[in-house]
Structure to design on (208 residues):
């Protein structure tokens, strides 16, 4: 079973901007010309890495993404969807039989519960999941959209989410001479050293 969903379509914007990071780091001028462009790109990479680490750690999705989760079995009347906080909509629910033939379940057979934390796929009243023997490996596939919807105007995430991300970026910036500063182990070390883990623990979503 895969506990982290697959990212089908990533966010079109990050939760913090390079300007916000520069202000947080108190950097007035990154450099000139090529140097400035390189440092700007470096900060953008740090922001993306910090956001991914934050989302995986807290089981949240910040800006809108399309995710897919696969599992081996049905979960009774509902399925709590990983990182579906918040859940926008469910795109599809599919299952495979022992021959590998895939069937798409009608959207009228389930409900997208966008009010619960995390969001859930709920079986509609009077509907039963198939009793057919399922494919032996990850036969159930759920695709959904989660995060703050990127409609116009785009809703800003709260400061309680921005601050730990900017602190993670600050830690990476401080260690930017390291060979691989954006890997998850380095980010975990930064989060522990700077006390960011505690901040994220308070924001973590627990299914059930």
């Amino acid at each position: 079973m895969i506990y982290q969903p697959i990212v089908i379509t990533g966010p079109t914007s990050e939760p913090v901007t390079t300007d916000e990071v520069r202000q947080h780091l108190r950097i007035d001028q990154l450099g000139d010309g090529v140097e400035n462009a390189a440092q700007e790109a470096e900060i953008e990479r740090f922001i993306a890495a910090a956001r991914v680490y934050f989302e995986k750690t807290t089981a949240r999705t910040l800006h809108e993404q399309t995710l897919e989760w696969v599992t081996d079995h049905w979960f009774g009347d509902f399925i709590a969807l990983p990182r579906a906080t918040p859940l926008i909509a469910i795109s599809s629910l599919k299952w495979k039989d022992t021959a590998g033939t895939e069937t798409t379940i009608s959207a009228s057979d389930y409900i997208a519960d966008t009010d619960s934390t995390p969001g859930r796929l709920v079986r509609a009243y009077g509907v039963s999941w198939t009793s057919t023997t399922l494919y032996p490996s990850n036969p159930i596939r759920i695709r959904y959209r989660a995060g703050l919807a990127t409609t116009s105007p785009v809703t800003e995430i709260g400061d309680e989410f921005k601050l730990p991300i900017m602190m993670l970026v600050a830690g990476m910036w401080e260690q930017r001479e390291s060979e691989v500063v954006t890997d998850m182990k380095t980010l975990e070390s930064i989060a522990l050293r700077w006390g960011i883990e505690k901040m994220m623990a308070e924001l973590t979503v627990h299914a059930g």
Observations:
- The radius of gyration is 20 Å.
- Residues 24 and 166 are 7 Å apart (CA to CA).
